[in-house]
């Protein structure tokens, strides 16, 4: 019987590898079908629940994603992966609850680089830009060279008044092969924060029409002005250390659908600016 169970786990793992590939290939519907097929055979399969939650999240069905992650936490109350998934569902609706979920995730697994990155995003969404830099830095220690985290860290540094350090992260990314309008916008914001106005305008001109540049520059300056008071505020609670503590799962009511955080087009002048750096 044990051998059969072991073979079943191996088979489930192989099948879920296909679900992983489907998620990477932007086919969440296939990932959902695969994960649910595994759950039909074994409703307690944590990996299948994680995949089901990720697939639901990718299709914008956050209430279903939360249900999957909460069920996983019922089976394993210290599941860092489920806590991370739950926090991502909460990010656009309740940044404080999302912060609590990510804090629980890194308490339960201090090597969870993704949860550190997402904790930084939650702090940024609360306007705590200076506090957000520490989790981003820890994420990069655990997963060096992760460009998404570097972008997030660079933007937080710019918004917290540390423009020169921000440029160290954003400058190389803005001229790399993977540069995107979002990254160039973040780079332009850091340049503007550093007082390099002409260079900021030049960076924006790559993606924004000439007749929109003045409006874009004014919008960027407004973002920096609005961020300035928050950068001087007291830091939020420090990152956890020591034994894991229980995470009180939130009770929330969600709309029928919820889309993953969208990329913000250059023409929108990144308002709110943090949405331009929500990478997963």
Coarse shape: elongated
Q: What structural category do the secondary elements indicate?
A: mainly alpha
* Low-confidence blocks of residues: 1-8, 241-246, 250-280
Give, in order, the helices and strands: HHHHHHHHHHHHH
Radius of gyration: 20 Å
- Helix coverage percent of residues? 55-70%
Q: How much strand content do the residues show? A: under 5%
Largest sheet: none
> What is the overall pLDDT average?
82
Helix count, per DSSP?
13
Could you outline the blueprint of secondary structure elements for this entry?
Elements: H1 2-24, H2 28-41, H3 46-58, H4 62-75, H5 80-90, H6 95-108, H7 113-125, H8 129-142, H9 147-159, H10 163-174, H11 181-193, H12 197-204, H13 213-231
Features:
13 helices, single chain, disordered C terminus, mainly alpha, 280 residues
Characterise the protein shown here.
- By secondary structure, this protein is an all-alpha fold.
- It is 65% helix and 0% strand.
- It has 13 helices and no strands.
- The protein has helices at residues 2-24, 28-41, 46-58, 62-75, 80-90, 95-108, 113-125, 129-142, 147-159, 163-174, 181-193, 197-204, 213-231.
- Helix 1 (2-24) packs parallel to helix 3 (46-58) and helix 3 runs antiparallel to helix 4.
- It is elongated and about 60 Å long.
- Mean pLDDT is 82; it is low at 1-8, 241-246 and 250-280.
């Amino acid at each position: 019987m044990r051998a059969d169970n072991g073979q079943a786990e191996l088979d489930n793992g192989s099948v879920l590898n296909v679900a992983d590939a489907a998620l990477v290939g932007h086919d969440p519907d296939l990932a959902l079908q695969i994960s649910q097929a595994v759950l039909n055979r074994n409703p307690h399969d944590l990996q299948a629940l994680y995949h089901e939650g990720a697939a639901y999240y990718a299709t914008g069905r956050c209430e279903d994603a939360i249900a999957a992650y909460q069920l996983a936490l019922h089976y394993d109350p210290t599941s860092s992966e489920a806590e991370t998934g739950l926090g991502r569902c909460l990010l656009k609706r309740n940044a404080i609850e999302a912060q609590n979920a990510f804090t629980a995730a890194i308490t339960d697994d201090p090597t969870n680089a993704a949860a550190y990155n997402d904790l930084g995003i939650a702090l940024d969404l609360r306007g705590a830009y200076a506090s957000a830099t520490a989790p981003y830095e820890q994420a990069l220690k655990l997963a060096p060279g992760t460009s998404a985290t570097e972008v997030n860290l660079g933007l937080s540094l710019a918004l917290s008044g540390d423009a020169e350090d921000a440029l160290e992260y954003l400058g190389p990314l803005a001229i790399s092969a993977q540069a995107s309008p979002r990254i160039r916008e973040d780079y332009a914001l850091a340049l503007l924060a550093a007082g390099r106005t002409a260079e900021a305008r030049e960076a924006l001109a790559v993606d924004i029409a000439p007749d929109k540049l003045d409006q874009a520059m004014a919008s960027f300056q407004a973002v920096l002005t609005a961020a300035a008071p928050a950068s001087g505020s007291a830091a939020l609670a420090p990152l956890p250390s020591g034994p894991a503590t229980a995470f009180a799962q939130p009770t929330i009511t969600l709309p029928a659908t919820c889309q993953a955080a969208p990329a913000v087009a250059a023409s929108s002048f990144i308002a709110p600016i943090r949405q331009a750096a929500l990478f997963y």
